[in-house]
Amino acid sequence: MTLKVITQSGEKKVQGWDVGTVHRSLWPVAAIEVYTSKEVDAVNGTNLRLKCTFSSSSPISPLLSVTWNFQPEDLSSHEPVFYYLKEPYTPSAGRFKGRVTWDGNIERYDASIIIWNLQSTDNGTFTCQVKNPRDIDGTIGEVRLRVVQKVNFSEIHFLAIAIGSACALMIIVVTVVIICRHRQKKQQEKTIEVAGTELTSLLLKISDTD
User: Could you tell me whether strands 10-15 and 2-7 are parallel, antiparallel, or unpaired per DSSP bridges?
Assistant: First the structure.
């Protein structure tokens, strides 16, 4: 096979190499590292920022791409969530239509997105893949999302009332104990005072008799 390669010195012909070999010889492939949280819990109905950062041994390329995919808990086929190549592309169909926005900054090696209005059907694994030619191989970040149900207002209200009632009862009990002890102390002091007065009177009578 003869392949024409354009170099700075002009056109050259390379025989016996396939395209992949020539590509690897001209553009050494390095690994790109992608970092995400392993597991995230979020409340149903809220918004969540799925953080994804990366490191690359090559300068940021204009052809850098970011691909977010989703696999439900039932391990069915992957679904597209988001794609970035020079600009963000959101899905035009599927469960994430209108619910995903770009929240990253390529210059800061940030490929994060925001999922709006989380639902129980969003339980599953999100993957973040970044390709930065010449760095096209490397790790793929995975985030396992668990959406928990929102606590009902009635439950929160009941809990607040229970805690408030317990605190109020405790304050009342402590106050009653303090008042009782204070009265008991006053009564003891009064009893001692009366006994002292009676004793003094008795001594005076004895003295007068003598």
Answer: antiparallel
